[in-house]
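[Backbone geometry]
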Amino acid sequence: MVVAFMTLRVTLCSVFAVGIGLGLFAIEAQQPAGKAAPKGGVQGRLTFFDRQGKVVRTLGEPGLYRTLTISPDGKRIAFERTDPQTMNRDIWLRDVMSGKETRFTSDPGWEAFPLWSPDGSRIIFTSNRGGAFDLYQKASIGTAAEELFYKSAEGKGPTGWSPDGRFLLFYSIGQPTHVKLLATSGPADRAPVPVVNEQWSSITARFSPDGRWIAYTGNESGTNEVSVRSFDSVTGAIGKPMVVTSGGGRTPLWGADGKEIFYLSQEGMAMAIGFPAGTPKPLFMTPAGVAFWDVTPDGTRFLMPVPEP
């Protein structure tokens, strides 16, 4: 089926004008698990689109979907879904080809932001089972127990894992939000390093495929734009910001070779821009309410929840 989503166009300008400093994508840490609807959640189905906005494939049953991610080999997806009976929010895994679906978490707390390790063997996620939203890890195959990965007083949502496996990117859940860099080894209470000066808001950061760059959304320029900073994985040094969008940009994703960045405009248009220098190119209008999305490793298909008609 081919679907043209211009009819689903939604004006998000008024929402995003408020800015990421208000934590639009953030889990509300003061909210009891299983109560109010989560921000960024879409009642519908997970759907793959091509670069022209045509539906390639619809996955699974209808549900309330939110954070999601595609495995490094593109064969599996991990996603957050709300149980319609209990309103509990857990992470599920799905094999793209076979359609087999398995529950990944079962704790009564709220589990979200699944993030695959570079080799796909592990998944890190956030959970408020202990009070604050801390990070936990678990093998992506088998029945291994979940382990505490990182604990701190602030809530956090993981969004990027360096290709060499040594560093993690997360953003603090609160108002405003701040992107931070965390070593993947060390004690559970090890200290992270701010990627962006905390006088500014920043969110949803991702490492480039070669690990040399960090793309994120921030308001250092005065408006919410996608910026990129260099990163030295040997020393952990982070470079100065380079703004790559204009007129608003959010939720960046890297293309397969690191020479292209995908992002969402203020209006919800999926955009592509060459990196380090290129002209923004509109791809297609995303469905109403989409805040979280991902791209396949080859950069040809995009996964996001689509509202049911």
